[in-house]
């Protein structure tokens, strides 16, 4: 059978690359497929300080480059192709790409999730330059600076409180006149003297040349625009949108079991409800989405896939 692999991994972020490393080291014929830029969300992070063993000048791109090199060193093949359809019904799984069709004894889905964007002008250009979607990753970079958190749900308020450990002031910007977060979380937030709140407000534009320099707010009731500029002693500030994540799972709807949010459901060994199909990283239901947990998922998925292949294909 043409293009038959032991393991095909869809997605080349930390989860997919870790899976590729472990699968190829196990002498499995391994293919990592990525539709675009290798690395996932971490390549938008200038510094990686919370991954164990990271060196002082580690960046998202440099860490990913080492992961790619390591996986390829052990024989993992990497191709750029966009998967447009899958058939998981047979013993050998079929993945149809824009360029080729691939067959695999086991498939690891590691396509990740992406933060829901504000959708305002300047957001994309300043991502990683003041705009961040991960407080755990980037809070330290805003020590003694001001930070704006966009959103009003549980995660927005919890992340805002976390940011108060670092930032001088944290302002929650919410489009309504009251938070959607649980009352218990709200009570803690309102008692935090480092936190302020902007009600009935959205972000119209984020401005800056290389770093954030100002932000334009819009009042949802009056339509009035207000521009806030960074304090001259600071030169910049942080913007953290927490308005939800979107799992990149549309292709797999009806193929594997998901929760109502579109995240793939697995057990602790990364098994989905379909034999021979595994999921790893941000795409699956989990409590913490970080580089370290994604890499761990990828390693577990590859080892579980190896055992599955040995048992079902007599190898």
From TrEMBL:
Keyword NADP: yes
One Pfam assignment: Pyr_redox_2
Protein's name in the database: Thioredoxin reductase
Domain of life: Bacteria
Subunit organization: Homodimer.
Biological process (GO), any one: removal of superoxide radicals
Catalysed transformations (reactions): [thioredoxin]-dithiol + NADP(+) = [thioredoxin]-disulfide + NADPH + H(+)
Keyword Metal-binding in record: no
A GO MF term: thioredoxin-disulfide reductase (NADPH) activity
PANTHER family to which the protein is assigned, alphabetical: THIOREDOXIN REDUCTASE 1-RELATED-RELATED
Listed InterPro entries: FAD/NAD-bd_sf, FAD/NAD-binding_dom, Ferredoxin-NADP_redctase_2, Pyr_nucl-diS_OxRdtase_2_AS, Thioredox_Rdtase
Any GO CC annotation of this UniProt entry: cytoplasm
Source organism per UniProt: Anaeromicrobium sediminis
The protein's required cofactors: FAD
Protein EC: 1.8.1.9
Residue ranges annotated for the FAD/NAD(P)-binding domain, each copy included: 5-298
Stored NCBIfam families: TRX_reduct
Gene3D superfamilies: FAD/NAD(P)-binding domain
Gene name as annotated: trxB
Cofactor stoichiometry and binding remark: Binds 1 FAD per subunit.
Keywords, ordered alphabetically: Disulfide bond, FAD, Flavoprotein, NADP, Oxidoreductase, Redox-active center
Similarity section: Belongs to the class-II pyridine nucleotide-disulfide oxidoreductase family.
């Amino acid at each position: 059978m043409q293009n038959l692999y032991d393991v095909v991994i869809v997605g080349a972020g930390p989860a997919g690359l870790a899976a590729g490393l472990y699968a190829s080291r196990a002498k499995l014929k391994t293919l990592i497929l990525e539709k675009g830029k290798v690395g996932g969300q971490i390549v938008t992070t200038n510094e990686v300080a919370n991954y164990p063993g990271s060196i002082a000048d580690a960046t998202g791109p440099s860490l990913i480059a080492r992961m790619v090199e390591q996986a390829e060193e052990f024989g993992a093949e990497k191709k750029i192709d966009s998967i447009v359809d899958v058939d998981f019904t047979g013993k050998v799984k079929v993945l149809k790409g824009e360029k080729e069709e691939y067959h695999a004894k086991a498939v690891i889905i590691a396509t990740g999730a992406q933060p829901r964007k504000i959708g305002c002008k300047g957001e994309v250009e300043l991502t990683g330059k003041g705009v961040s979607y991960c407080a755990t990753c980037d809070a330290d970079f805003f020590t003694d600076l001001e930070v704006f958190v966009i959103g009003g749900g549980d995660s927005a308020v919890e992340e805002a409180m976390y940011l108060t450990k670092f930032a001088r002031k944290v302002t929650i910007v919410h489009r309504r006149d009251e938070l959607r977060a649980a009352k218990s979380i709200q009570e803690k937030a309102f008692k935090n003297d480092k936190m302020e709140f902007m009600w009935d407000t959205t972000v119209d534009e984020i401005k800056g040349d290389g770093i954030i320099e100002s932000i334009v707010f819009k009042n949802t009731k009056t339509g009035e625009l207000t521009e806030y500029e960074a304090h001259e002693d600071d030169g910049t500030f942080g913007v953290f949108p927490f308005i939800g994540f979107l799992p990149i799972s549309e292709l797999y709807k009806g193929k594997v079991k998901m929760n109502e949010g579109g995240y793939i459901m697995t057990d602790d060994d990364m098994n989905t409800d379909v034999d021979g199909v595994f999921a790893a990283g941000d795409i699956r239901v989990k409590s913490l989405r970080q580089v370290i947990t994604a890499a761990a998922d990828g390693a577990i998925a590859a080892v579980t896939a190896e055992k599955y292949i040995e048992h079902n294909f007599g190898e």
